[in-house]
Amino acid sequence: xxxxxxxxxxxxxxxxxxxxxxxxxxxxxxxxxxxxxxxxxxxxxxxxxxxxxxxxxxxxxxxxxxxxxxxxxxxxxxxxxxxxxxxxxxxxxxxxxxxxxxxxxxxxxxxxxxxxxxxxxxxxxxxxxxxxxxxxxxxxxxxxxxxxxxxxxxxxxxxxxxxxxxxxxxxxxxxxxxxxxxxxxxxxxxxxxxxxxxxxxxxxxxxxxxxxxxxxxxxxxxxxxxxxxxxxxxxxxxxxxxxxxxxxxxxxxxxxxxxxxxxxxxxxxxxxxxxxxxxxxxxxxxxxxxxxxxxxxxxxxxxxxxxxxxxxxxxxxxxxxxxxxxxxxxxxxxxxxxxxxxxxxxxxxxxxxxx
Length: 355
What we know:
This protein is an alpha/beta fold. The protein has helices at residues 2-5, 8-12, 21-25, 34-44, 69-80, 86-98, 111-114, 117-125, 154-161, 167-170, 190-196, 204-211, 226-230, 247-255, 281-293, 330-346; strands at 55-56, 128-132, 142-147, 175-180, 199-201, 218-223, 258-265, 272-273, 299-301, 319-323. Helix content is 38%, strand content 13%.
């Protein structure tokens, strides 16, 4: 099914038909449309090289260009200290200290924030859609493995952290939580915004807290490839990082959670990236920085506001996130199944036959 959905015709249609005609066919505008940009890439044998001054990014963010919300929050927090409203920063620092464990305890999701009209406009820009292929039992807890990382993972954010694609309608009784690097929860004000969107830290104790909640109905989603996989994100290709990424499977077995595979088609088509093939000097620097800081620094570019030649806004490419059938029933259920199987086999057989 994955190969069928990844076929060129399926990846381009019918979602590209939702874009304006001039953007589909390349008409109008000084930079050309989506169709013109894709034909130029095919003729050139790959994505074009960005101009000087391309942006480097961390492992994950929700911005679409310009200063990120985390940077703005930090500037506001520090700036308030030098105004007559300095006491707001002091009071928030006290609150921050008392509430520092909350991101590891499931956060504080806000349905009001997740239902903002702004997210529907973000959904329609690409557009982004969520495809359901199996039911999720609200009495169970789930651990979702999400691929690919892409540059900014808007598919993961829009589908799992907002209601713009109707997650709660497709999966009633399931509360999704997207896993994020702990660093972002140390940014004042911004951490509150993240938690209200259902994001939690990537610590083991944070994931364990979600998977061990009584009553079920919780889903923790991990972008498996993470920062390192972002260095391979480029249009028309899916290079996934799977080796040595089995820790989430152990967590699912340990806490009795079922695994839910999720794949987001089109996630890598939003930005062009500077050529950084393994073994190149640029990739060597990026790998060193990623190992040192836990962030990756892909050099990428997208489109501008009125043209397609250069900018930091993502290209308008359709993103289709597919949820697949849950795999496994967790360690407890596996052991129970083995015991039941053993009893069935043992009926009418001598005990020695099972040794």
